[in-house]
């Protein structure tokens, strides 16, 4: 029922914590180990896009298995990010909501429209 | 009320989509643009940890403002990851749950305990 | 005179070693610290390219100051890579020549021509 | 004879250019393709260090094959960096020498000694 509402960051945090504990992996999950693992996964994600030139939104023409592979690499980045946040004592969901508010202040909707300056070209 | 249950990936996806539309940023949010923005944020996250040597779990001794800064960089990575997934047509929450199931098959709890082989040292 | 022949990796290694010693920075230059610093610089490099869409070779239309900035970020990645190799006891120039030989075996010139398979689309 | 003096960036640039031309890979080597390939290699480099905790200089205790593998990943990052610079029209050796001079101005040797401020903890 809860998952009808969507997957929460808290549920992923808990699943990762259980997963690590059941395998005695807590010993390996120091912040910098997890950060480097995250960088490794970002590398794998980049490899998917590296020789393709520009890729249109929605990935038209990609095979189902390519999209599945992409979903796996995106997930690996997410799962290490969730685990890293947990090991740092950061509530990632709360931090993300706060950052969204900061972004809304930094880039007011009216001022950004049609602006093409470096600082506001789509960026956080 | 819903947020008592925790922040969902779907709610972040929707907030990012609204944020981009209100600023006419959809034009900049192609998959590879977002991927490079994600790499940029991973770089900023790494800078926080770069000169510290090993960092213990829970970040004892870090100042409140350092933890806040960390929360912001973790969030930036998350928000671009959510947006990248959306622009690729990947349901990130669903993909993450599926990946967790694949991981559970790949690394059965009993076999991994105390294993120190390369493949199973804490990794997805 | 020597530099007429081009900058050697060995000369950069020595300059970085001198630079660090003169500033008492050896204490900070552990392998993983340098690796994270490298990741940070790769992030800054990515930021230069992140909102541009596809960029043609030779960067037509870029301002002189943008190219200079790019040269600085490319250099930062290089300098940390040189320093990381040194701190790991790896002779980077020798390793690169060896890798080029391995690549030549892995991707024979005749077989790759016009091949568009994933493995050989321009990759090492 | 020349290589007794060490491997130059220019010689690597030329070898990579020849390598790509002989395989018809120029078509794939756009700046952003190469940048993403570089990120992929940085990911592979990170994977070598990810579960190890702090690693002492010189990598005591690493097996010969682990060091060789490390040398290969360091080389892959270097080779893509050299190629990316070439495709951007940046003279990487010249840029690196210029950046070293800028760094010497930014961090004067006398002022940095024993300084532990964030800005000067070993960083470019």
UniProtKB/TrEMBL annotation, chains A, B, C, D:
Keywords: Cytoplasm, Hydrolase, Magnesium, Metal-binding. InterPro entries: DCTPP. Its EC number is 3.6.1.12. It is found in: Cytoplasm, Cytosol. GO terms for biological process: dCTP catabolic process; DNA protection. It catalyses: dCTP + H2O = dCMP + diphosphate + H(+). GO terms for molecular function: dCTP diphosphatase activity; magnesium ion binding. GO terms for cellular component: cytosol. Its cofactor is Mg(2+). Its main location: cytoplasm. It comes from the Eukaryota. It is an enzyme of class 3 (hydrolase). Pfam families: MazG-like. Hydrolyzes deoxynucleoside triphosphates (dNTPs) to the corresponding nucleoside monophosphates. Has a strong preference for dCTP and its analogs including 5-iodo-dCTP and 5-methyl-dCTP for which it may even have a higher efficiency. May protect DNA or RNA against the incorporation of these genotoxic nucleotide analogs through their catabolism. Homotetramer. This is dCTP pyrophosphatase 1.
